[in-house]
Amino acid sequence: MNTFVTAALDVGGTKIAAALVTADGTVLHRDERPTVTAGRLRDPGLAGTRAAAVELFAAARRLGLTVSGLGAGFPEYVDAAGLLTSREVLAWDKQPLDVLSALALDVPCAVGSDVRCGALGEARHGAGRGLEGFFYVSLGTGLSSTFVLDGRPVTGARGEAIALGEFEVPASVDPNWSGNLESYASGRGIGERFGVAGTREVLAAGGPRAAAVLDSAGRALGTVLAAVVRLLDPAAIVVGGGLGSAAGPVRAAMERAYAEHTAARSAAPPLRTAALGADAGLVGAAALV
């Protein structure tokens, strides 16, 4: 009896994750590789994406699994047709849908925004399951978001309803910051503010200045999420991504600020941690097909 799986890719600015996923969201095989950097952008020509897909199909053959589709999430704006409409992170010269369809000629392919894939995975099999509507935040190297309604991420008219990182930093947190929230509170932004590569190095450095940078990042995000609640009134906020779902000073400061700014509500939407962890984007990408 054949076991059918969907090949799934979660392409990020730091790594490219790949998995074989069953219909119930079970990951049977997982692999990842670092994303190659080309100046400011990543994965030039989508060479790493293509190689990850090729290896994924080879793994399915070795394991005796039948691939019935291919879904992939990318850290860009993606429209309703599955076409990338931005070059914020990746150095792509061909549409991923064309690249992947050429590899998987006999199975359907689908492409979506990586944050919407993560949200879809949580809606189907994770912390958002059973909720009518929730706001999903992915905090890692970058910062993005999506609103999930009736089990599906809301894409917006142009597929661009993911840009929480474009919000301003609240003046109550830092009145002198002229950049956006992503450049202040994401892993990359925290590192740049401190003068190192990322959050891990800031934590390792320690000291009052590191503590202040980490705390202010969390407070900025928590304050903005309280404003999102006033606008959308979701049943919950689900926080994912490597930095968002990890215990530590950023998450703690975010929770404190969120609680402070939602205290006047009779029942503020709870902050939930994404249940699928690093697999959320893969499980959601599989669900695209």
Description:
This protein folds into 2 domains: 3-118, ATPase, nucleotide binding domain (Nucleotidyltransferase, domain 5), CATH 3.30.420.40; 129-273, ATPase, nucleotide binding domain (Nucleotidyltransferase, domain 5, 2-Layer Sandwich), CATH 3.30.420.40. The model has no long low-confidence stretch (mean pLDDT 96). It is an alpha/beta fold and 289 residues long. The protein has helices spanning 47-63, 96-103, 114-125, 182-185, 187-194, 199-205, 207-232, 249-261, 280-287; strands at residues 3-11, 15-21, 27-34, 37-38, 41-42, 65-74, 109-113, 133-139, 143-149, 152-153, 236-240, 271-273. Helix 2 (96-103) links the parallel strand 6 (65-74) and strand 7. InterPro entries: ATPase_NBD (IPR043129), ROK (IPR000600). This is Sugar kinase. Keywords: Kinase, Transferase.
Largest sheet: 5 strands, mixed
Write out the CATH superfamily name of the largest domain.
ATPase, nucleotide binding domain
Stretches where pLDDT is under 50 for at least 5 consecutive residues are none
- Give the termini separation: 22 Å
Q: What is the averaged pLDDT score? A: 96
CATH architecture classification name of the largest domain: 2-Layer Sandwich
- SS-based class: alpha/beta
Number of discrete helical segments? 9
The percentage of residues in β strands lies in: 15-25%
The strands making up the biggest β-sheet line up spatially as 3-2-1-6-7
Rg, Cα atoms, Å: 19 Å
Compute the number of strand runs: 12
Q: Determine and state the CATH class of the largest domain.
A: Alpha Beta
